[in-house]
Design brief:
This protein is an alpha/beta fold and 251 residues long. The protein has one domain: Alpha-Beta Barrel (TIM Barrel). It is built from 10 helices and 8 strands.
């Protein structure tokens, strides 16, 4: 039996108004005493303090960020300092999401600096990896994942391994409605776990890519899948509740 806690992480991306946030947490508060999994939400950075104030109504939802800088401070207009994130009470940060890799051309070397800096300031890190459709069709999935793990987590201090989570998100399944089969996802998760240098058996590995209430159970049933990094389905409280309900009974 797996002992790693199930994590259901909502990545809200550039969505949600204050009114929508209020309605979301009113709905989520209804399952306050049912929530047995780890439920995390990453809103837009400017909304983090607001979510920190109201998240207590749901019991134990943790609030984090979608990205951070590799720098602590300085003349970096528009960037988000991990020092500032820690200062306002953010608990985690997502680093290396496929949209950061593709839209903003963030490579493994830069992402490694971000990972190490965020961990230095005691933020938990969700480090994202995954292949494109072209890479999968060319049978390069494992080579891509190995490079992203090796380079992105280079020089990871052993004592910080407990603060690291990894998210496998096949790029071809993000926002497309397509989803890797549970078997495909498990194969990738097992490979990722085999490449982790520190605390591999204890590291939480999430699946991300069009996760919905109707496919979460088959994913969580797999040995190496410890939860989900959820996009669209995390914007509706009813869907997020359903995912958290599945996560609460999966162990």
């Amino acid at each position: 039996m797996k002992t790693r806690p199930v994590h259901i992480v909502g990545n809200w991306k550039m969505n949600m108004t204050l009114h929508e946030i209020s309605n979301f947490f009113i709905e989520m508060s209804k399952m306050k005493f049912e929530l047995k999994c780890k439920a995390w939400v990453a809103p837009q950075a400017l909304h983090i303090p607001i979510l920190k104030e109201i998240a207590f109504t749901t019991g134990s939802i943790q609030i984090g960020a979608q990205n951070c800088s590799e720098h602590d401070s300085g003349a970096y207009t528009g960037e988000i300092s991990p020092v500032a994130l820690a200062d306002i009470g953010a608990e985690f940060v997502i680093i290396g999401h496929s949209e950061r890799r593709t839209l903003y051309k963030e490579g493994n070397e830069l992402l490694n600096k971000k990972v190490l800096n965020a961990l230095k300031h005691n933020l938990k890190v969700i480090y994202c990896v995954g292949e494109t459709l072209e890479e999968r069709e060319q049978n390069k999935t494992f080579a891509v994942l190995e490079e992203q793990i090796r380079e992105g987590l280079k020089n990871l201090p052993a004592e910080k391994a407990s603060q690291l989570l990894v998210a496998y998100e096949p790029v071809w399944a993000i926002g497309t409605g397509k989803v890797a089969t549970a078997e495909q996802a498990e194969e990738a998760h097992a490979f990722i776990r085999s490449k982790l240098v520190h605390a591999a058996n204890d590291t939480v590995i999430l699946y991300g890519g069009s996760v919905k209430p109707d496919n979460i159970d088959s994913l969580l049933a797999k040995e190496n899948i410890d939860g989900a990094l959820v996009g669209g389905a995390s914007l509706k409280a009813s869907d997020f509740r359903a995912l958290c309900s599945s996560g609460s009974i999966a162990r």
